[in-house]
Specification:
- With about 70 residues, the protein is mostly beta strands.
- The protein has a domain of about 50 residues: Ribosomal protein S27 (N-terminal domain of TfIIb, Single Sheet), CATH 2.20.25.100.
- Helices cover about 0% and strands about 30% of the residues.
- The chain has a 3-stranded antiparallel sheet with strand order 2-1-6, with no helix packed on it. A 3-stranded antiparallel sheet has the order 3-4-5, with no helix packed on it.
- It binds zinc ion.
- Its cofactor is Zn(2+).
Length: about 70
């Protein structure tokens, strides 16, 4: 004697985690207004070439941008 009454219909759906879109971003230094293209997921901190102030700081994931984001290239 077999029973199918206890069959579970629970589906395990995959929850899609939106991947952070990496991009190149044109950042303007808030100190000297020099512009520089940086990578949004840069693995290293990036400093302004002119005044050496920090433009992008590495966090291990998405970088923190300290300058002014002027443009974004996907
Ligand atoms: Zn600067």
């Amino acid at each position: 004697m077999s029973s199918i009454g206890g069959y579970s219909m629970v589906k395990k759906e995959h929850i899609l985690i939106p991947k952070p879109r990496s991009a190149f971003i044109l950042v303007r230094c808030s100190n000297c207004n020099a512009e520089r293209v940086v990578y949004s997921h840069s693995s290293m901190s990036i400093r302004c070439r002119q005044c050496n102030s920090l433009l992008v700081r590495n966090t291990g994931g998405k970088a923190i941008i300290y300058g002014v984001e002027v443009n974004r290239f996907a």
